[in-house]
Design goal:
- By secondary structure, the protein is of the alpha/beta class.
- The protein folds into 3 domains: about 80 residues, Arc Repressor Mutant, subunit A, CATH 1.10.10; about 100 residues, D-Maltodextrin-Binding Protein, domain 2; about 90 residues, 3-Layer(aba) Sandwich (D-Maltodextrin-Binding Protein, domain 2).
- The chain is about 40% helix and about 25% strand.
- It contains 10 helices and 12 strands.
- Helix 5 links the parallel strand 3 and strand 4.
- Helix 1 crosses helix 2, helix 1 packs across helix 4 and helix 5 crosses helix 10.
- The chain is globular and about 60 Å long.
- The two termini are about 25 Å apart.
């Protein structure tokens, strides 16, 4: 795509960037339109305008549907997230007093979160009197630490059917993503006697969702590769050792999605949620900071 936009009119807006990030987040225009309170046609035009300004196609579409980001889109996404996050942080820093005190934050190491580490670092820089201690573990372990009172704030992943997503009054939905069956090549479920899975250990929402989905259609599955490491699971799938279950943001370029066309049952959405142990001002402020700058625009 070659841009014919005059140089004097090459102005990128925050709404364009936010729309692009939300489209990338959920692979669709509807999600971005709902979050931004705009029509799908307005979001489509906003994306087209952004692509005209940067001079390349950012989102791959087929028959009007988003199928993923282009290589240029993948390259542009981190910069877009950084710009929007920094702007949100600047506004937040001016509108609220500095945070003081000490907070222990639990974060999952089995879910990709846009720039969470950078956001925590910037929260500390903007609030010199705030001490943040970060503990990273599987979401199930994070929840156990939270229940023991070891954490003031926790970010965990759950599938949409988990009780904590549906009932917890202390939780805040940060974002959600579709969960996919993935492999290193197209495979038919019918061709497999038993389904070999690359999955996280007991207590993982992905694991539970996968096993329940397979059982619902009367198919057997087994743990061909089990690891608590996010990267190990991805590598096992890439090597063809097993079939994995991961959200869209976790897919590598060599992963292919297995859908109902290959006989695979549907999976629930993954919810990324933040839970608070206390409603005190200090925890509220950090929760709001992370909500607006770490995980979505």
């Amino acid at each position: 795509m070659t841009s014919s936009t005059p140089l004097g009119d090459r102005r990128i807006t925050f709404d364009q960037l936010r729309g692009f990030i939300l489209i990338a987040e959920a692979s669709g225009f509807q999600h971005a339109a709902t979050r931004l309170g705009r029509s799908q046609s307005a979001i489509t035009q906003s994306l087209k305008r952004l692509e005209d300004i940067v001079g390349c196609r950012l989102v791959e579409r087929r028959q009007g549907r988003v199928v993923g980001l282009t290589p240029d889109g993948e390259r542009f996404l981190p910069a877009a997230i950084e710009i929007v996050a920094r702007a949100s942080e600047a506004v937040s820093a001016m509108q609220k007093p500095q945070i003081t005190g000490q907070i222990v934050l639990g974060v999952p190491d089995d879910f990709q979160i846009f720039d969470l580490h950078g956001a925590v670092s910037r929260a500390s820089n903007l609030n010199p009197s705030l001490r943040i201690e970060v503990r990273s573990a599987l979401s199930s372990d994070i929840l156990q630490m939270f229940d023991r009172g070891d954490l003031e704030l926790a970010i965990v992943k759950r599938v949409a059917t988990d009780p904590i997503v549906q009932k917890s009054k202390a939780s805040h939905l940060l974002r959600k993503e579709p969960l996919y069956w993935i492999a290193n090549e197209k495979r038919s479920l019918e061709s497999l006697n038993d389904l070999p899975l690359a999955i996280f250990p007991e207590g993982c929402s992905y694991r539970r969702a996968a096993l329940e989905a397979v059982a619902s259609i009367g198919k057997n599955a087994y743990s061909a590769y089990t690891s608590a490491s996010y990267e190990n699971i991805r590598s096992a799938v890439s090597a063809g050792l097993a079939i994995g279950v991961l959200p869209r943001s976790a897919l590598s370029k060599d992963h292919v999605i297995l859908s109902d066309e290959e006989g695979f049952p549907s999976l629930p959405d993954v919810h990324l949620i933040m839970i608070q142990a206390t409603r005190c001002t200090m925890v509220n402020q950090l929760a709001q900071f992370l909500q607006y700058s770490a995980v979505h625009p």
